[in-house]
Write a structure and sequence with these properties.
InterPro entries: Beta-lactam-related, Beta-lactam/transpept-like, Diverse_Enzym_Activities. By secondary structure, this protein is an alpha+beta fold. Helix content is 25%, strand content 16%. The protein has one domain: 3-Layer(aba) Sandwich (Beta-lactamase).
C-alpha cells in the first residue's frame, strides 16, 4: 500500500486530503440532503463459525489480540477492531481499547469509522458498474465527460510560482483515473513543485471554501500534470475526478448513486459521506500522533464525518462500519454478488483485480519517489486496488492475487481469493505509516491459517 511523504517527516497514507465538512447542510441542492440511514440493529455483527471449522487456529489467532493490545496499552492506538472471514463466514471478531479516549467510550462492533481512502474501491466499483452498462469505456478520454480536462499540460520545469509546461502527449483516460497513472497529485505530497501548486490553490488537507466536486475538478484541470498519462504512478485526486465522472454519466450526485446502486443493494446501513445526527455517538474520535508517536486527539478533523461535505470525495470521503465494509468485501470475494444482489459480473471483478500497470510493472518501478509504509516490490495496481503479483518480492507473508487498500486513519482491508479470505482492520490514527500495522497484521493472520 502506497504512502505519501508529509512535511512532518511522517507520511500520509493511501488517501487524499480529509473531506472538508463545509459550513453546514442547510438550504437547497446537494448540501440540503441528509445522510441516508437504515434501521440500526445493535449487536448484529458477530462471529458466524468456529475458527477451526474454516482452517484457522484459535490459539494462533489470539496472537493478533496480544500483539495489538500493546498498541493500546502504550498509547500508540486509541482502540481497534479486527475482522477475519473465511469461506464467507466471520471466524474472528475482536475489539480492543476506546473509540473515544476522553469520553471513556470503548470500540464496539457497531462503531463507525472514517475510512478515507477505503472509499476509493467503492468509487471504482461505481465506475465499473457504468462500464458494464455500456455508458463509458475505459479508454474514453476524461474530457468527453469533463471538458475542462480537454487540453492537459505537463510540468517540465521551474518553480511552483513560475512553472514551465508543455501539452501532454496523451489525453487522460478513464483507466488512468482508476490506476492513478493520470499525472494528477495530492497537495499533501511534498516531493514535486506541482504538489506545491495544489497547496497554493487550497488543496492540502481539505478543499477551498465554496467549491463542490465539480469546482474542485475544474481547479485541478487548470494545474499541470506531473507526467504524461500512463507514464508513471502517483497517488492522487484521480478517484475524486472519477467520482465526478460517475456523477456526469449517471446524472446523479455521487452520494445518490452510491446509495441506490451499492449501499442499499448490499444493505450497507452505516456507509455515507456523513453520520446521521442520531448515530453520531457511534462515530469514533480521530487521533493523530505526537512527537513520541502516541495518539493525541485531533480536534480540528474530528468534525469530518459529522455533516455532509461540500465536496463529495470518492477518493476519501466515506464513513463506514465493520459490518458494512465486511459486506462490501464479501461482494468482491463473491465475484460481484452478495445475498442474491449482483453489482458486477465475476469477470469484471477478476478484471479489476489484475495488475493494469503498463507492461505488468510493479509500483516500485512506476511510483514517483514518495515514502511507502510497506515495500512496493511485487505489487501492481488494478482498477481501484493494489494487487500482489509476487508475494516473495515483498517479503511479507501473503498470497498471489491478494488485493487490498487502506486509509489515512490507519484502516486497512484485503481480499485473498486463493485462501477465500477477507480481513478488515479499523482504527482512527493519522497518519497510517507511523506504526507497522499492516505488515504485522498480515503476518499474524496468515500464520493462523493451518489447513
Amino acid at each position: 500500500m502506497y504512502e505519501n511523504a508529509m512535511g512532518s517527516g511522517l507520511s500520509a497514507p493511501e488517501d487524499g486530503p480529509p473531506s472538508s465538512p463545509g459550513t453546514g447542510t442547510g438550504g437547497t441542492g446537494p448540501l440540503a440532503r441528509r445522510p441516508w440511514k437504515g434501521v440500526h440493529d445493535v449487536g448484529q455483527l458477530q462471529t458466524e463459525v468456529e475458527a477451526t471449522d474454516v482452517g484457522l487456529c484459535p490459539e494462533r489467532l489470539e496472537r493478533i489480540e496480544q500483539h495489538f493490545a500493546e498498541y493500546v496499552t502504550d498509547g500508540r492506538l486509541p482502540g481497534w477492531l479486527v475482522l477475519i472471514a473465511r469461506h464467507g463466514k466471520i471466524a474472528h471478531l475482536r475489539t480492543h481499547g476506546m473509540r473515544d479516549l476522553e469520553a471513556g467510550l470503548p470500540v464496539e462492533t457497531d462503531t463507525i469509522f472514517r475510512i478515507y481512502s477505503m472509499s476509493k474501491p467503492v468509487t471504482s466499483v461505481a465506475a465499473m458498474m457504468l462500464y458494464e452498462r455500456g455508458l463509458l469505456e475505459l479508454t474514453d478520454p476524461v474530457a468527453e465527460y469533463l471538458p475542462e480536462f480537454d487540453q492537459p499540460r505537463v510540468y517540465t520545469g521551474g518553480s511552483a510560482a513560475a512553472a514551465q509546461t508543455r501539452p501532454a502527449t496523451e489525453p487522460i483516460r478513464i483507466w488512468h483515473l482508476l490506476t492513478h497513472t493520470a499525472g494528477l497529485t495530492y497537495g499533501f505530497h511534498r516531493i514535486h513543485p506541482v504538489d506545491q501548486m495544489y497547496r497554493d490553490q487550497g488543496f492540502e488537507n481539505g478543499y477551498p471554501e465554496g467549491l463542490d466536486l465539480a469546482g474542485a475538478c475544474a481547479a485541478w484541470a487548470r494545474l499541470p500534470l506531473l507526467f504524461d498519462p500512463g507514464d508513471a504512478w502517483n497517488y492522487s485526486v484521480a478517484t475524486d475526478v472519477l467520482g465526478r465522472v460517475v456523477e456526469v454519466v449517471s446524472g446523479s450526485t455521487l452520494d445518490e448513486f452510491f446509495r441506490g446502486n451499492i449501499f442499499e443493494p448490499l444493505d450497507m446501513r452505516d456507509t455515507d459521506f456523513a453520520v446521521a445526527e442520531s448515530e453520531q455517538d457511534r462515530l469514533a474520535a480521530l487521533y493523530s500522533v505526537d512527537r513520541n508517536r502516541r495518539a493525541v486527539r485531533n480536534e480540528r478533523l474530528n468534525r469530518v464525518g459529522t455533516e455532509l461535505p461540500h465536496v463529495l470525495s470518492g477518493g476519501g470521503g466515506l464513513v463506514s462500519s465493520a459490518r458494512d465494509y465486511h459486506r462490501f468485501t464479501q461482494m468482491l470475494l463473491g465475484g460481484g454478488t452478495l445475498d442474491g444482489n449482483r453489482l458486477l459480473s465475476n469477470r469484471t471483478v477478476g478484471f479489476m483485480t489484475r495488475n493494469h500497470l503498463p507492461g505488468g510493472a510493479d509500483l516500485a518501478d512506476m511510483a514517483m519517489g514518495s515514502f511507502s509504509e510497506v515495500t512496493n516490490a511485487g505489487k501492481g495496481f488494478g482498477l481501484g486496488f493494489s494487487v500482489n503479483d509476487r508475494p516473495q518480492a515483498s517479503k511479507v507473508l501473503s498470497s498471489q492475487g491478494q488485493y487490498a487498500w487502506g486509509g489515512m486513519a490507519s484502516t486497512a482491508f484485503w481480499v485473498d481469493p486463493a485462501e477465500d479470505l477477507t480481513v478488515l482492520f479499523l482504527t482512527q490514527l493519522m497518519p497510517s505509516s507511523v506504526h507497522p500495522i499492516r505488515t504485522r497484521l498480515q503476518a499474524l493472520v496468515y500464520q493462523a491459517l493451518v489447513d
